[in-house]
Write a structure and sequence with these properties.
The protein has 406 residues and is of the alpha+beta class. The chain folds into 2 domains: 269 residues, L-amino peptidase D-ALA esterase/amidase (4-Layer Sandwich); 119 residues, Ubiquitin-like (UB roll). It is built from 11 helices and 16 strands. Strands 1, 2, 3, 4, 5, 6, 7, 8, 9 and 10 form a 10-stranded mixed beta sheet that branches. β7 and β8 form a beta hairpin. The chain starts with a strand and ends with a helix.
């Protein structure tokens, strides 16, 4: 078990917190792989969510926004991969509602306590006969050891399942947070261009849960990018069922700060997995901007560098092309002074103030050959800093996306 101060990393995902079960099956949406998952809470959970900012919203997102207005509680999430149910009009909305009704009936819970989520190809109707039969098949299979199966079932072009979990102590009570996510392409931050489902057995007020999610999301899923494309279906969801029975805590308490940091830890871990698993990627790239006058300034610069295709291709080719990095800093829109910017790659100096080039080509090429690359940009304007994550851009990315529907 790894430790991060008072937060201890554990093996597991959405079923590590007490009172949660899950499962995944193949129902026939995809050609061969599992494509349907359920997360179930034994008791109604407080729910908090953030959604994609894309104005082209998929049917499940429209349904979920209605559901969250109807109830602040959630007892189950039904998720499919292989079909986004996006740009499908009234028929798509009806299909999403039918998934909600079928899951609610089979689980014996109120309809307003079911959240629905889809991911996959845009603009195709759901094969509802297969989906509804799959939901009925899956319900009796949902159990405490089904977290991995659920994580597999939400994958699309992902090359591996993405799970993370931690435990920590609130007062005298052990509390757990677990999560699973999917995403590898169509990743651009403005909420989170992916799907993430997080569970906790903590007792926490609904308003504080939403605040914790919003703050953690800003530092995790909103700071990843693969290709700059924002999807139509994306959401991050947190369920808190209170099974741990910890003492309630206030918004300004140390307990809330600890809970928030634990949630942030899980979400950052999942976010980095998504960036590393970018379609065709061979490297995780961390862009660390420091010395900014404001956090927003640092984020603007980091986002610009992380979204640069020229930077990402240079990293793939082990080319320490600091000029591309500096260009991205310059067009970011932040009021930087390029003459005092310093750049390092995996802690090796590349550029000092006054455009002094200190690049050692041989050492830097060796550093870039690693699977993780750290680009540090010192703006020398203040004390604020931000970390952003992306991946290299490869020929394989083009190959994957040139034949995504086939």
């Amino acid at each position: 078990m790894k430790s991060n101060g008072d937060v201890h990393e554990c093996q597991g995902g959405v079923t590590l917190p007490r009172g949660f079960t899950a499962g995944g099956v193949y129902c026939g949406i995809r050609k061969a792989k599992k494509d349907l998952a359920i997360i179930r809470s034994d008791r109604p959970s407080r729910v908090a969510a953030v959604f994609t900012q894309n104005r082209t919203l998929a049917a499940p997102i429209l349904v979920d926004k209605v559901q969250l207005q109807r109830s602040s509680l959630c007892s189950a999430v039904i998720i499919n991969s292989g079909n986004a149910n996006a740009c499908t009009g009234e028929r798509g909305l009806n299909d999403a509602w039918e998934m909600v009704r079928t899951a609610a009936h089979g689980l014996g819970i109120p309809e307003e306590q079911v959240i629905v989520s889809s991911t996959g190809v845009i603009g195709q109707y759901m094969p509802m006969d297969k989906v509804l039969a799959g939901i009925r098949e899956l319900i009796p299979l949902v159990n405490e050891s089904g977290g991995q199966s659920a994580a597999e079932a939400i994958m699309t072009t992902d090359t591996y399942k993405k799970e993370a979990a931690v435990q920590f102590t609130l007062g005298r009570t052990v509390v757990r947070i677990g999560g699973m996510a999917k995403g590898s392409g169509m990743i651009a931050p403005n909420m989170a261009t992916m799907l993430a489902f997080i569970t906790t057995d903590a007792v926490i007020d609904h308003r504080m849960l939403q605040k914790a999610l919003h703050c953690a999301n800003r530092k995790s899923f909103n700071r990843i990018t693969v290709d700059g494309d924002m999807s139509t279906n994306d959401m991050a969801l947190v369920l808190a069922n209170g099974v741990a029975n910890n003492e309630p805590f206030g918004e300004h308490s140390e307990e809330f700060q600890l809970f928030s940091s634990a949630l942030e830890y899980v979400m950052i871990k999942l976010a980095k997995m998504i960036a590393r698993d970018g379609e065709g990627a061979t490297k995780l790239i961390e862009v660390y901007v420091k010395g900014a006058s404001t956090e927003q300034e640092a984020e603007v610069v980091a986002r610009s560098v992380a979204n640069s295709n020229l930077v990402k291709t240079a990293m793939h080719g082990n080319d320490a092309n600091w000029g591309r990095i500096m260009a991205a800093v310059g067009y970011s829109g932040a009021p930087v002074d390029p003459g005092i910017v310093e750049i390092r790659i995996n802690n090796l100096p590349v550029l000092n103030k006054g455009y002094e080039i200190v690049l050692d080509e041989q050492k830097t090429a060796a550093a870039l050959a690693r699977e993780q690359v750290l680009i540090t940009i010192e703006l020398n304007r203040g004390h604020e800093k931000v970390r952003f994550w992306t991946c290299d851009l490869t020929k394989e990315y083009v190959h994957i996306n040139a034949s995504y529907r086939s």
